[in-house]
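Bench log, entry 3. Co-assembly request; chain sequences pasted below exactly as received.
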Amino acid sequence: MHRTRFMTIVAAGAAALFVSSASALDKITVAYFLEWPTANQVAQLEKTYDEALGIEVEWRAFGNGNEMSQAMASGDVHIAYSQGLVPWVVAVSNGLPLKLVGVAVSYAEADNCVVHADAGVTQANAADLEGKKIATPIGNVTHYKLLRMLDHLGVDASKVDMVQMNGADAAVALSRGDVAAGCAFGGPLQRMKEFGSELMTAAEQEAIGIRVFDVVSVTEDFAKDHPDLLMKFMAVTDQANAAYSADPGRYQETISMAAGMDLAATENMLGMFSFPSAADQKAEAWMGGTVQAFTKEVADFFVQQGQLDQALDSYDFAIDASFL
Amino acid sequence: MDGLSIDDVSMVFTLPNGGEVHALEDVSLHLKPGELMAVLGPSGCGKTTLLNIIAGFLAPTSGQALLNGRLVTGPHKERGMVFQQGALFEWMTVAENVSFGPRMGGAPRPEIAEKVEHLLGIVALREFADKPVYQLSGGMQQRVALARCLANDPDVILMDEPLGALDALTREKMQGLVLKLWKETGRTIILITHSVEEALFLGERLVVMAPRPGRIHKEYTLPFADQGVDGDAREIKVQPEFISTREEILSMIWEMEEEIMGGGEAG
Amino acid sequence: MADHRNQPSALAIWLGIADNTFTRQKTVKFGDASAVNSGRLWSIVTVVVLIVAWWIATVGGILDPIYWPPLDGSLYPWDNPNRARPGVVDRFVSLMVEGYRNVPLWEHIWTSVKRVLLGVCFGALVGIPLGFAMGLNSVARGLLDPVVEFIRPIPPLALIPLVILWLGIDEVAKTFLLFLAALFIMLIAARAGVNSVRISKVHAAYSLGASRTQVLRHVILPNALPEIFTGLRTSMGVCWGTLVAAELVAADQGVGSMMMIAKNFLQTDVVVIGIIIIGAIGFAIEMLMRVLEGWLIPWKGKG
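Structure output for the full assembly:
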């Protein structure tokens, strides 16, 4: 008798769990980064998205862009806001059905590699990094920048001991002197700068053609099934970006709260960010052709570095500005 | 004074609940060198406690044990032990077990080898010297235990039901071996046993103990052990005197058991 | 009556499809665990079915290679030839020949195995004396008991943040995590080994004139060896299980690191190869330890 009841409860519980995970769209989940202040976080915190979309919008923080891809592959996440271009390229090259639907933020200075002061390495003797450890997230924009820089400075990347670490851990490793250099973006990069200096400045990187921006990516299914929701999401984002650009000082405190950073660091980092408008994004400089070309360039570079098995012939099919 | 003396030994265990168990009360005994005494009694009569006191594993609450005039304060190789079973070192070979005492004492190697050879000859295990002990049968293992004990030339050998776990046939053969060793080595032996027949056959002296409190109930001096050294065990065990003494002791122990039952569970 | 003339073949018995002669004469079989034969045929069937299913999924293009890699890339019906990639078999060969991130596969494996061995060795070197001390001395027991009881239930992985802060990201940190995993297993095994010594053996040794040191060296230690070896076996298994996570601390070399980085490049085939390697090596370690146990401690369970 008791056993029967017990089994019934277990079965009902299991069924409930199963059903809840398989139910229809009752909310959308957006992946984002902590310590990465973006203008749309005002709308995130004030629930503007939820009101405009008429559905609950859940924001879930991730450690790196590849984890975002994997979560999207499993169907748990619909939109990745501010996913790095490289994780997106890796995902699409491997056939993951992800669409690039917008440019979230352009930044050159907020993502970089810092050489520990004790390592005594500058651009002039960058080859000394061979045989040393560099902590970096692997398979993302930061990694791409590092490889491009090493390539430019004549360092054999295969001889560098690259250790996969997310930014926060990499900052700890650099502070302890466990690694000669560390690469990160956002808050951890600011902490790293206390212990050393950048290998190349953002301006120097741009001069050799390294572009750094994050994208808005979505699963193909979500774009196909809910184009209206996606367009509204992009519209709210564009309005938030416009509002911020008009009066940055007004919103910085709200953004710092959402990003989980103190105000000074938020201001500092926001100073390095630009949020292109929807109109700009559709233009030639962004999704009108440049993003497509750069994406192919990044993919080919990773293949050449032996990190990616193969690149697609073109990434145009997965880049879609029509939701802007 | 030569020999083993037990003077007014009492042993009281205090239970966790504050109660007391009188395991032994005013037990006194004296064994001359070379005597073989069997100790018999129902469970709870304190015979193992007595042996542990003589071995030096337990300190009595009052009274003392003396060997050749020296106070027993702890275990010593002058008092060897043979346990029921499971006291051999299973990670050693037969020879290593037998040589354990002399090796620990730092005796010279040739002397040890000679002694092991000799003792294994006595217990008829020479062929098995290099076998691990766990490959031996129960009877063979007890022979190893006897040899191991003898290797130290103890003055007194204390046996705690050494044959208790053996089958009847093996047991009878081992009884003969115990007698043989006793005569050949001239050691003082105290043997604890559950078997009345074994006590009668092996005990030159036989002590029957009674429980609650543990004490000496009756003592016998018997001729059978001397006869058994050369005689036929079967013949000795069917002698009228053997049988009548056996019946007397059996009914004595039976009564004690009845008393315990009456005072305890049956009430 | 059992039929003695119609003996099952040795092969049938090995495959577990026929009972051996002794089992055949038992009338009560259900509930008698020793009457359950190996069922080896079904083990073989399971493995074959799994491989065939994998092959069918590959040829039929049933599973997207993102989620589960094809057995052989050339068999998979790629809808976009651009996406065609090698399968698990080819990838394995290339990992052996060319390696992953410039490091040959066997070196990744050796790095991982070395970490486990170091962790277990240090765990044993520290844990066994501490376990002995706790089993033999009340001061040691009192001093260590609260520490042991508090730290033991904490999974080593929960300590990763502290370990990075204290020890950094090098071999020391990873080995330390494995050391912690092994330490308490070894400590408890050694303590149990001491506790398991039969008092009559200790008494016998003292009666034979052994000193305290000699009792420790010749009785308590060998008596505890079977338990210690069981501890070694368990900690090998647990450390091997902890390893992958420990290597995530800062992935550079090792099977776990390889999988972690492959994951970032969505190289599911490398991940799957990593999983198979981890399973196979874990199994090999267990088998090796069993053989060693029979060889080193033949008296186990025979006291």
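Residues 240-263 of chain B form the longest helix (24 residues). The first strand of chain B starts at residue 4 and ends at 14.
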